[in-house]
Amino acid sequence: MGTTLIIGAGGVGRVVAHKCAMNADTFGNIVLASRTKSKCDQIASEISQVKIETAAVDADKSDEVIALIKKVDADIVINVALPYQDLTIMDACIATGVDYLDTANYEHPDAAKFEYKEQWARDAKFQEAGIMGLLGSGFDPGATNVFCAYAQKHYFDEIHHIDILDCNAGDHGYPFATNFNPEINLREVSANGRYWEDGKWIKTKPMEIMQVWDYPEIGPKDSYLLYHEEMESLVKHIKGLKRIRFFMTFSQSYLKHMEVLQNVGMLGIEPVEHQGQKIIPIEFLKTLLPDPASLGERTKGKTNIGIVAEGVKDGKKRKIYIYQVTDHEACYKEVKSQGVSYTTGVPAMIGAKLMLEGIWHKEGVWNMEQFNPDPFMDQMNKQGLPWQVKELKS
Ligand code: NDP
Fold first, then answer.
1. Which of 326, 282, 79 is CA-nearest to residue 190?
2. Which of 31, 177, 308, 350 has the greatest count of CB atoms below 10 A from its CB?
3. How far, in Å, is the centroid of ligand 1 from the Cα of 104?
4. 392 by DSSP, 3-state: which?
5. Burial of 154 (0-12, 13-18, 19+ CB in 10 A)
6. Around 331, how many Cα atoms within 13 Å sit in the side-chain half-sphere?
7. How far is CA 97 from CA 125, 134, 136, 280, 282, in A?
């Protein structure tokens, strides 16, 4: 049995640690490392099935990650730190010949822009090192990519349109808080929107396009078009695609807070002078907002994330909806975490499980939809994320 190294002890890291411990036959020794070791120790103390070792690491420094991988003799690194650390951790995996998985694509700390370019550019080095990198094994990206691959495999000859629909109807009782890392979340939501049609990316203003979608087990919700990273790989890998869009629900109160924060400059990523000190507004805002990890206990309600795919099968039009509903309170009961961290951490564990078991294993750097979706979908049903398929009128 080998060793699994998890880097990042935030909301998602907690779920990954719990879920790997529940699947200890596959994951062997589990080491949880992060910038703040006390957070790792806290999570390890909650897990009784197996002993979780902990360590401190600054994953911005490849050398520190290399030293840790060697010290614990890791077989795989599950990166659930922040997107800023993707490249340093990937480089450490190349240097040590160890498989890699993450849940979010690389984002430069100084530019509110995320893309796969620099991670895909490491494909040849991963192949030379004889290792695998699995990118975006969370829910969206992650399960949503697998839903698209599943639709393509079982329901369509060609998919023409995909809408990814992400609804979080959880209520934590605070006037304003973000469900995962505030800096990452607010940068994503305040950016221009973008969707892909007929081979081109079409830019939209933030929150410019809205549709109401009736989410099963939740009800109708305003859903706004955003750019989301899984579209960058799906446009390459889904046959016959003509349009793909991504929608996320936001309440009027959330949008009003965002607008005010934006207008007063609190979402800025450039340093500003404050009483002789340089501060970055969005980082300061993160200090003021509730820690996403603390929301679990207070959050009630459900999430529903899925895809609607339209296309043709045997010459006939077809439209299907694949979705997954998660209950925040049930997640907290199981692993002391709210649903957004849960729905990200479980697919991270499943991706790593399929890699370690050799079910999904190829040298190089890959996106989720490039693998057979069936074993992943099967594991979702077994590991706490049961999904549904509905045939819609096309
Ligand atoms: P959190 O902010 O709760 O946790 C991030 C963790 O990473 C913290 O423990 C933090 O340490 C640690 N960390 C930050 N910088 C470093 C560093 N330089 N070295 C080592 N550790 C570091 O974030 P989440 O758990 O909510 O999110 C984790 C990842 O999951 C993010 O990349 C996020 O974008 C992604 N995500 C993906 C989703 C999907 O569906 N695909 C959905 C939601 C999130 P410290 O505690 O010291 O700050």
1. 282
2. 350
3. 10
4. strand
5. middle
6. 31
7. 10, 14, 20, 37, 36
How do strand 316-327 and strand 302-313 relate by DSSP bridges? antiparallel
Query: Ligand 1, closest atom to CA 292?
Result: 3
- Give the C-alpha separation, 99 to 115, whole Å: 21
For ligand 1, say whether the CB of 351 is within 6 Å of any of its atoms.
no
Q: Ligand 1, closest atom to CA 58?
A: 19
Model confidence pLDDT, tens digit, residues 19-56: 999 999 999 999 999 999 999 999 999 999 899 999 99
Would you tell me the crossing angle of helices 339-356 and 11-22 to the nearest 10 degrees? Answer: 50
Q: Which residues pair with 330 in a beta bridge?
A: none
The pLDDT tens digits of the residues spanning 195-220 come to 999 999 999 998 899 999 999 999 99
* Torsion, CA 168, CA 335, CA 14, CA 246, rounded to 10: -20
CA of 175 relative to ligand 1 center, distance in Å: 23
CA of 158 from ligand 1 middle (Å) equals: 36
Which candidate, 159, 103, 156, 148, places its Cα nearest to that of 322? 148
| Three-state DSSP string of 359-380 | CCCCCEEEEHHHCCHHHHHHHH
pLDDT at residue 178, rounded to an integer? 86
112: confidence class by pLDDT, cuts 50, 70, 90? low
Peptide bond before residue 216 is cis, with ω within 30 degrees of 0: no
What are the start-end ranges of the E strands in the chain? 3-7, 29-34, 52-56, 76-79, 99-102, 132-135, 158-168, 193-197, 200-204, 210-215, 219-226, 243-249, 272-274, 277-279, 302-313, 316-327, 364-367, 387-392
- Greater pLDDT, 252 or 132: 132
CB of residue 140 inside a 6 A radius of ligand 1: yes
The pick from 344, 346, 368 for probing ligand 1's pocket by mutation, whose C-beta has the most ligand atoms within 8 angstroms, reads: 344
Q: Evaluate if residue 164 carries a pLDDT over 70.
A: yes
Nearest atom in ligand 1 to 14's CA: 25
